[in-house]
Amino acid sequence: METKEQKFYQALQDVFIGARIEGQGGFVNLMKIKSNYYSKIEKLIKEDIEKALMQYPDFRNELFDKLYSFFSRYFSESGSIYFNSTPFHNNVYEKVYTDEKDVILFWKTHMLYYVKTDRIFKSMEIEVDGFKFHFDVSELEHKKSNEKRNLIYELKEVRKDKTLVFNVLYSERGRKTKQNEILRTLKKEKISIDEEVLEKAFRTFEKQSEVDFFINKNAKAFLQEQLKLWSYQYFWDGAKKWTADRVNELQILKDIAFKIIDFISQFEDELVKIWNKPKFVKNSNYVITLDRIWELSELKSEKELAEFPSDRGVSHRDGVLTNTSENNRTKWYEIPYNPALKERARELRKAGNLSEVLFWQQVKGKQFLGLDFDRQKIIGNYIVDFFIKDIGVIVEIDGNSHDNKEKYDNERDEYFKSLGLHIIHLRDEDVKNDINGVMGYVKECIEGFLTPRQTSSDTL
Questions:
Q1: How many CB atoms lie within 10 A of CB 149?
Q2: Cα 151 from chain centroid?
Q3: Which residues pair with residue 321 across a beta bridge?
Q4: What's the whole-model pTM score?
Q5: 149-158, 334-343, 447-456: which has the minimum mean pLDDT?
Q6: Where are the domains of the chain?
Q7: Closest to 417 measured CA to CA, from 451, 380, 460
Q8: Torsions phi, psi for 64 (to 5 deg)
Q9: Residue 67, Cα to own-chain centre: how many angstroms?
Q10: How many C-beta atoms surround the C-beta of residue 407 within 10 A?
């Protein structure tokens, strides 16, 4: 059976270090440092307690019981120090106003620096509709701030007992969980599971509670003040008669508690120093890739300077060079839109042919060059196959339906060019037979469009 002493040390370790966090990142490293620090001070605390109890060994259980009951009130799940769990029958004294400050300036956490609110994900196993899942968060890199990032899941392995093991990661650059790929892999393993069960398992894992992280501005003063108030309450509500031995026992309790507070506050004070350290930019640099700028020779006269931009889509006025080709491009939110074509675009999107589906699999979810592709985009009175709004590029896949429509296609292209848009034409049979070659060609075209000298449309 666990003794009160064992319970105290285990509880102190838990509340001081906070919830155990798996994964990677600066905050995880901080928790590891804090854990190492506690392992060193625990030995010192034990030595002081053993020395203090030599004269009063019978006070041992009561000492650990009272130490635990006091400190557990002021440590949160994240290891933060503040009013966390104060029983209703215990008075909490807090000034609500002074002669200098209004009452509105006082609140329960006024002594804290707020760091962030986050969910502490732990590796866990669950069972959903008869399927066993294990979620591994050991590779999860924790967020640096309150940024909004979604979780994604990668199938790691299928154990011999048919447990599905998933790596849990934060999404980067629009990455999403590839459920279709997961289902195909599981099908090969002869595991019949549907998308609904996967979604249910993922949502169950994500129900782990959120935790607030704080740093106490003055942990030592706060805990000492609370200990004094607790001692006064205990003294006045306690026995009517106080023997010399009882007073000495309570003095031991006070001394040990103050030493524990000193150890705890030393680490917390270092966190405060780091938090209050002035943040400033040490250095900044501009990175310009060579394939995005022109090869320039030295301009030695005002005449050369005036003539230079004329053939590169750049205008020169009052000593300022401006990129006219960029200015002439219609922004994506200014593109003409015919709402009458909305239903037709939706129908085309649902009934996409094989080549469109193959191409879409390569570009959806920003997986191709980090670009956002739209399907069946309405531009004016036309519907284009794919549109990249980030850079104003249209991708058309031409099949048999475009035979004998050269005039019509030219009119479309001229209209798109008038809006400052670029067009890439792909052949249906090329997409079906050589998708990798097609994607390489599209990449070359896009890189060409990002260079100001490139203005014409391309056709594969």
A1: 11
A2: 8
A3: 316
A4: 0.47
A5: 447-456
A6: 4-114+216-276, 121-207, 292-327, 332-459
A7: 380
A8: -65, -35
A9: 38
A10: 8
